[in-house]
Write a structure and sequence with these properties.
Blueprint (H helix, E strand, L loop, with lengths): L1 H28 L4 H6 L5 H10 L6 H14 L12 H36 L4 H15 L2 H15 L14 H35 L2 H8 L4 H12 L1 H25 L5 H10 L3 H29 L1 H6 L1
Family: Belongs to the binding-protein-dependent transport system permease family.
Protein name: Peptide ABC transporter
GO cellular component, one term: plasma membrane
């Protein structure tokens, strides 16, 4: 088991390095640099060269990459050219919004998809199955930012139940939680639609296995056979899809946070892109990639908890 964990951790470490190389190379080919963005087009070549030397931009590309990677490993991400503050401080401040938003969206997606998918699989072709299929098709077809706008118009402006946008800060926990409900729901609905289809298909497949039929032949009720035998054995593909959805939730947060004017990582990335703050974009992408890598490592570990056969094989 320990060898399996070490092997997976080493694989993710290699993935992290490869992603960092790709991100650095992409930033290198983008026209302009932080010095040009800070001084503008009216700067003289001498002033521009002096600032580039002060910022270390005149060093060879491989040396700048190694400095940046070394800084990442110790938490030093450089200084934002737009805000003039350490990038790490900016990202920590924005993660305090994005991580709770993503976590709440995951809980909502699972809370919607798991009961809906299992209920649909209990009686294929029934009313519940038809309703789940309709919900899944509609949820997949509609983008999350459009759902966000619809929720603002109906729930926030029309009914006045929840705020339409903004974030008061965690010094007001109740107000902060209410501010995250609508954007989290906007993120969760498309992902829960996908998860509903996966859950239904997986449970239906397991319900046709021999061990479930044996349990039914021994007198187990449909409900017991479903929840005690079928659902636990159908969780591996569901967990796989849930792990993949984390990256979609993070990507969707870029649009949803701007729709709801939330000061999260997505809004920071959008502002940095519009202001050509390349060092911020570079580090935000790496933080997003690290979150996805860690989530996938957690999913691998969760496999061995859910399925004992995988634990013995590992």
């Amino acid at each position: 088991m320990l060898r399996h964990l070490l092997r997976r951790a080493a694989g993710f470490a290699v993935t992290f390095v490869l992603i960092s190389v790709l991100v650095f190379c992409m930033m290198e080919i983008v026209p302009g640099d932080p010095a040009s963005a800070m001084l503008g087009t009216s700067a003289t070549p001498e002033t521009l060269a002096a600032l580039r030397a002060q910022m270390g931009l005149d060093a060879p590309a491989y040396l700048r990459y190694l400095r940046w990677l070394g800084g990442l490993l110790v938490g030093d991400m450089g200084t934002s050219t737009t805000y003039g503050v350490p990038v790490g401080a900016l990202i920590r401040e924005r993660l305090a919004v994005t991580l709770p938003l993503t976590g709440l969206a995951v809980l909502m997606a699972v809370g919607i998809a798991l009961p809906l998918g299992v209920t649909a699989a209990a009686r294929p072709g029934g009313v519940a199955d038809g309703a789940a299929t309709l919900y899944a098709q509609a949820g997949i077809a509609v983008p999350n930012f459009w759902i966000g706008l619809l929720l603002i118009m109906v729930v926030a402006l029309g009914l006045g139940w929840l705020p339409a946008g903004g974030f008061p800060g965690w010094d007001q926990p109740a107000a902060a939680f209410r501010a995250l409900l609508l954007p989290a729901l906007a993120l969760a609905i498309p992902q829960s639609a996908v998860l509903t289809r996966v859950t239904r298909a997986s449970v239906v497949e397991v319900m046709n296995e021999d061990f479930v039929r044996t349990a039914r032949a021994k007198g187990a009720s449909v409900s017991r056979a479903l929840w005690r035998h079928a659902v636990p054995n159908a969780l591996v593909p569901v967990i796989t899809m849930l792990g993949l959805q984390i990256s979609f939730l993070i990507g969707g947060a870029v649009l949803v946070e701007n729709v709801f004017t939330l000061p999260g990582m997505g809004r920071l990335a959008w502002q940095a892109l519009s202001q050509r703050d390349l060092i911020v974009i570079q580090n935000v992408v790496m933080v997003f990639a690290t979150i996805v890598i860690v989530v996938n490592l957690g999913v691998d570990l969760l496999y061995t908890v859910v399925d004992p056969r995988l634990r013995r094989r590992a």
